[in-house]
Structures are given as structure tokens and as C-alpha cells.
Amino acid sequence: MLFPDAARRPTRPLLRLLTATLLALLALAAPARADKASQPIPPATLALMAAKGTSASAPILLRAYKRESEIELWKRNGAGRYVPIKTYPICRWSGQLGPKTRNGDRQVPEGFYTVAKSQMNPNSRYYLSFDIGYPNAYDRAHGATGSAIMVHGICSSMGCFAMTDQVAGELFAVAREAFAGGQGAFQFQAFPFRMTAANMARHRTDPNIGFWRQLKEGSDRFEATGEEPVVGVANGRYAFAPSKDPDKEAAAQALHRDETARIAALAEEGAAAVRTTYSDGGQHAFWAHRISQGFPVGDISRPEALAYAGQEVVLIAARRKPAPPAIMPETLWAAVIGPGTPFFPRRIAERPPYAGGTARLAAYAMRYQETLPTLLRASLDGEIGPPVLAEPQPMVERMAQR
């Protein structure tokens, strides 16, 4: 009976110590978990905002690019124009280039979405997150299904824009401060790639090109005006309201017209056409490098698929269109074959016998640009008669004279 009591006595203080230590650790961890949604915007990011004439409370707009695996932060400055502030590398996105159409397809959506304050989730199982608003009116018009498409922490995606916890926390803080400043909702633009004329020409044979042309129109409008596009849906297509500023509206139309012409010119010039395929989405090279160095990013969804990301299949090989013949300026013509030049008498002397009769025109061929009017006047005035046509020659003789 003495042995059990003796064995238990020294363990009671140890248990009490361990319990107290565990409770203390939990007490320290609880505020940290509760405060992750209220972490301030990093000073370096605030400095970037100040340099662009904006602040933490100003409205924001986000633009995502799947092919480049990046999300851009834009903020409205004092002049009322959205300006780029910072670009964040995406740690993981899933699926292929192209829109999301159904639940479970692992596709990251493409289009124009709206994020309200109610879509922010400080209690996300993926650190912090916000719902981008899929499906939108366009998606619903096309029968798309699915929900809960997020920008969140942890490098794992099943149709979401997966960032690291640190990046997700910064994006959450930026959005939180914009809402606190009075912004009711912000626009989230999701694209397959940067909507340049070169990229559009390069993917011109992709089955999604018609849809991407609609996204291109909205992208051009935003870049030309610096205003958040007012987006609607008409006849199953994205529709964009004109700017209230006539000058900005003219700029938007001009840019889109020029970009459309540039795409057509690139195709005409022989730019290659490709289709980019993925095993299951991609990852920014920055995070691939950091992960290879042992940097922790949490669970990575389907890491084996990242080795086959962004494989380009060439559908139309690039070809070089021959350059058009250069037009020789009049000054060059006059300097080379005009009267008084070494080549002028030589050209007359070297005419073959069957070209006889041209010497009668030499007096009128003084200037290249005046040749035709001068000859017409001389003919009308009777100074030059009709040309004397030579008798037809046998084919053998004509070939021998060439």
C-alpha cells in the first residue's frame, strides 16, 4: 500500500505544472488566433500606397491572372483613378485556362466578380479567406454550378486562389481597411492570362477565345479609364456600361479598337497559335523556388501535377511574312537615273534593238513624277504620235531576245 502512494505523490505537482503550462500556452495562442483577422497592413505596403497618392482606407480592386499565377492590388488615388500598388504571387490554383462551368471541375473561375463585406471569412479553416462571388450573373446565365470559390491561405486549391497564410492575411487586411473606409464592395477581375494583344493572338484558336474577347473588352476599358467597369449581362454576354466622362469613354473605345487591330495584325504577320494545358493548375515560380528551399506553405494540393503545368501545344507554327518591297523615294530615283547622272545615258545606249522607238520619249522623261502628265500633254498636243507596234515575232525569236 505504501508503494502506490509514494509513486503518486511526486507526480501530482508535475501534473499541476504541466496543466498550468498548457493553459498558459492556450491562453497565449487564443488571442493570436483571434487577432489574425485584425493584423495591420505591413508598413512597406502602406508606403507603396502613399507613393501612389492613395491610402489604406481608399477603395480597392483586385485582378488575378491564372497563366502568370499572380494577383494585382489596385487602389483608387486622390484623382479618382485606380492605380497598381502591388503584385502577389499565387501559391496554387487548379484546373485549366478557361471559365468554371460546374461544381467539382476544379476550375478557377474567370470573369468579373463582386466581393462584399459579408463575404469576408475571418474564421476560415484555410487561415483567412474571402469568397469572390462565383457564380455571378454571367455564370448563372450559362448554367454554371458551384460555390465557395475563395482567395485563402494554405497552398491547396480545388478551384480557389490559394495564397500562403502571410499573403492571405495581407489581402484580408487590405480589404478590411477599404470596407472600413466606406467601400461597399470591391471588384475581383479574374483572367486566364494578362490580356495583351500578343497573348490574345497566341491563343486565338483556343475554344474559349470568344469568351476571352469579352474579358478583353472589360480589361481594356479598365486600363483606359482607370475606373471600375460597370458590368452587366446582355444576351448571354458580358456588357459594359459607357463611362460618364466622354473623354474616358473615347479613350476606352480607342484602346479596344487599337488592340483588336493589333491582334489581327499579329495573326496576319504569322504569330504562332498555341494552347496551354495543365495537369491540374499551376503555381508561381517564386513559391516553387521557396518551397524547394524548405519554406513552409502548408499542405500543397497535388504537388505532382505542378511538374506538368503550362505545357504549350503549338497549333499553328509561327511563320515570317515577307516584308513588302520598299518604295524608292523620288529623290533617290532622280539621283540614280535622272538626266545628268552616269546611269541615264548608259540606260539609253544599252537598250536592245527590239526596244527601238523609246528614244523619242527621252525628252519628256525628265522627272519621275511628271512622266505620265508630260506624255499625256504631248500626246494631246500632237507632239507624239501613237506608238508603232512591231510585227508579231515568232515565239522562238521572242524567247531568244529575253
From TrEMBL:
What are the protein's UniProt keywords? Answer: Cell shape, Cell wall biogenesis/degradation, Peptidoglycan synthesis, Signal, Transferase
InterPro entries for the chain: LD_TPept_cat_dom (IPR005490), Transpep_catalytic_dom (IPR038063)
- Check the record and name the SUPFAM superfamilies matching this protein: L,D-transpeptidase catalytic domain-like
Q: Boundaries of each L,D-TPase catalytic domain copy?
A: 60-187
Which pathway does the UniProt entry assign to this protein?
Answer: Cell wall biogenesis; peptidoglycan biosynthesis
Pfam families membership: YkuD (PF03734)
Q: What are the catalytic residues? A: H152, C160
Keyword tRNA-binding carried by entry: no
The reply on keyword Repeat is no
Q: Which residues form the signal peptide?
A: 1-29
UniProt family annotation: Belongs to the YkuD family.
The protein's name is L,D-TPase catalytic domain-containing protein
Organism encoding this protein:
Methylorubrum suomiense
